[in-house]
Amino acid sequence: MKQLYLVFGFKIQIYVPPPICKAIFCFSHIPFTSFICICSVARSYVRPAGGPGAVVLNPDQNSWTSATTAGFTTSDITQSEIGYKIIKPITAEPSADLATGPDNGYSDIVKTTDGSGCYMFNNGSNFLFRFRIGGIVNGAKAYNILIDTDMKLGATGSSADPNYIAPTNSGNGNPGFEIEIAFQTGSNISIYNVDGIINPSASYTYSLATNSIISVALSRDNSNADYFYDFYVPLSALNAFGLSSSTPFRIVTTTNTNPGSAFQGTRSDIYGINDELFPNTTDAWEYVGKNTPSVTLDDITSGGGGYPDICTAPPVVTTGIAAGSNVSVTGTWTRLDAAKPAAATITVYKNGISQGTTTCNTGGSWSFTVATLVSGDVITAKAQSTGESMCMVSNSVAVTTCAPANISSSSSFVLTCLSNRGAGGTRPDGARIKIYTIAYNGSLTLFADDATTTYKTLYNGTANPVGTTV
Prior knowledge:
Number of helices: 3
Number of domains: 4
Distance between the termini: 91 Å
Mean pLDDT: 85
Shape: elongated
Structural class: mainly beta
Radius of gyration: 29 Å
Largest sheet: 6 strands, antiparallel
Strand order of the largest sheet: 5-13-14-8-7-6
């Protein structure tokens, strides 16, 4: 079957391609009868040229990334020779969202019809990765895997990483990743120790010829051919970093317009976000990592359960919870983006133990009554929407007897100044002021009063509480 077109004096016949081709284009100038035909092949190797390629990435050694030489006819995921597990993006991966580099090109992570663009697999001896990229080019670029093994990211909060490194004007920071794997197209595949490091040296290196393959994918994002960038490292090297088959870890995939470590290069595309909305690379990595569920190497074997469902955005617990009976705990919840489910089930925890559930619509408020709370109890909450994981925890709120619910209000008490030099304001006539610090567990420590403490509360410059000025 063919179609005939006349373009700029050339007769072009486009044939319906056989399974091994994405399209066949045949060209002939009108006076001639012979044709030159080009088959755009999907599923066969582009690099390395010649030979069957790495046996780990092409077990049957037939130079095809598809399960058979019939190629990918309906899906380049289910019909792949290797059973890669999909890395589910936290939000839909857009095309042409790059921080740097050409749109739909050699550093643009693109997606197929199910929204996926990055994959991984554990074959028992090796850790395999696959990027779906919008183009290919000669030259040195990098395709980076950032791994968080201690479940800690960021500078603040209950899961802050003690080895957090802030970005500077001259380079990226490290929000808390411990291991980096980089497919550096100009040189090699490297494993870096990046725990508290932003200028790493490679701990292990592997040849591109033995540890990588680039092939044509079935998808055609932006109507252009897409490519699979496949590479692997031995599990024994990762075991040396303490990553065992059952160790939970989080993963962020990113591309780099320079060869080498992502911490030393120029970020192009981060999988699962719109890069145009994240000008700070370190913050973007932290955001994706915190919203990513943990996985183990056992999960991504042929018999494993695969990559978990993405995390539901965490709720927020309202501060100022008083001790007592039948205490109402309140908060809010907002979904991660408009493509996510609009409702979630909220589970409330006291000291890490579930107290029950309630529901909330995105952008709305929720409440739950806890039977008994005492000073020092810690309240948290988690949210879960349909088809997502409950893997993100809210802020922690310590219950205290010094809470707004237990203090009589007075319109006469006004704080008019608060700085690193002190505080000041007005109060009811004759009232004494005591200032307390509140520990993370809710316990109170007297910090300042007008008699016994190192730091004194003064009234018009004296310890006499007569008057209204503090």
